[in-house]
UniProtKB/TrEMBL annotation:
Organism: Catenulispora pinistramenti
Positions spanned in the full protein: 1 to 256 of 452
GO molecular-function term, one example from the UniProt record: ATP binding
The UniProt record lists the keyword ATP-binding: yes
Official protein name in the record: Nitrate/sulfonate/bicarbonate ABC transporter ATP-binding protein
Record keywords: ATP-binding, Nucleotide-binding, Transport
Span of domain ABC transporter: 15-250
Lineage of origin: Bacteria, Bacillati, Actinomycetota, Actinomycetes, Catenulisporales
Length: 256
């Protein structure tokens, strides 16, 4: 961690979710409590992993934080202001990439900025910068179907980073990729995070993969299932990049 990323004050809080509950209604009319009083703080300079089994409500919590859905009760704040619709300070990376197949790489990357009314010239410049940062230089005019899964997710990353969000929210971003591709992209993400040029101040990553959480995060929140509650919070004090052979790594995995 570089010095300028060390959090030191309460005003470094980017996102704060407090006592968030979410209850869905099933098609046959039953109440399905998914989140039950979840609180989470995301501060400048940290990568937080939200670890939980499939169906535990990880995506639901992320969507509440992004302001895509409203909690049944509880609050989500961005920089101290309660959300009223989409969270203006975050951008998302999705498991399924969520690219529009009829648009080129560059058009896909520009679309998120278009939705935020970024002027055209600035949009182009930021898109090209993000595409370059994520290693897709030369693929600006390619269509998603011409790309591998790993390259498609790079477009997903470029699209999110191009808006220079305060916080990057990632929903199992590597789980649709093969093991090697996932490891490469994870490694690159770690390197970019440690470098000064990374255009976001905090990362919240949702995962069901313990190793992924231990490799990336400064802090790991463990979410239970049925309903989702935060069971434990772990601080990870290992230097990055992290490797299974590092002293302390296996102990940490066993703790989780
Ligand atoms: P995770 O991301 O941890 O796998 P999700 O947040 O996607 O979990 O889902 C948690 C639970 O909420 C699941 O049982 C899922 O079926 C249910 N769920 C998610 N979205 C909806 C919805 N819009 N309507 C009804 N049930 C939903
Ligand atoms: Mg999910």
């Amino acid at each position: 961690m570089t010095d300028d990323k060390v959090p030191h004050a309460a005003d470094n809080i980017i996102v704060e979710a407090e006592h968030v509950t979410k209850t869905f209604t099933t098609p046959d009319g039953r109440a399905l409590p998914v989140l039950d009083g979840v609180s989470l703080t995301l501060r400048e300079g940290e990568i937080v992993a939200l670890l939980g089994k499939s169906g535990s409500g990880k995506s639901t919590l992320l969507r509440c934080i992004a302001g895509l859905i409203a909690p049944s009760s509880g609050t989500v704040e961005y920089r101290g202001e309660p959300l009223n619709g989409a969270n203006p300070g975050v951008a998302m990376v999705f498991q399924s990439f969520a690219l529009l197949p009829w648009l080129t790489v560059q058009q896909n990357v520009e679309l998120a900025m278009q939705a935020r009314d970024v002027p055209e010239a600035e949009r182009r410049e930021k898109a090209l910068r993000a595409i370059d940062l994520i290693g897709l230089d030369g693929f600006e005019s390619a269509y998603p179907k011409e790309l591998s899964g790993g390259m498609r997710q790079r477009v997903g990353f470029a699209r999110a980073l191009a808006v220079e969000p305060d916080a990057l929210l990632m929903d199992e971003p590597f789980s649709a990729l093969d093991v090697l591709t996932a490891a490469n992209l994870r490694g690159e993400l770690t390197k970019m995070w440690e470098s000064k040029g990374f255009p976001t101040k905090a990362v919240l990553i949702v995962t069901h993969n313990i190793d992924e959480a231990v490799q990336l995060a400064d802090r790991i929140l463990v979410l239970s299932s049925n309903p989702g509650r935060i069971l434990a919070e772990l601080h990870v004090d290992l230097p990055r990049p992290r490797d299974k052979r590092d002293p302390g790594y296996e102990e940490l995995v066993d703790t989780v």
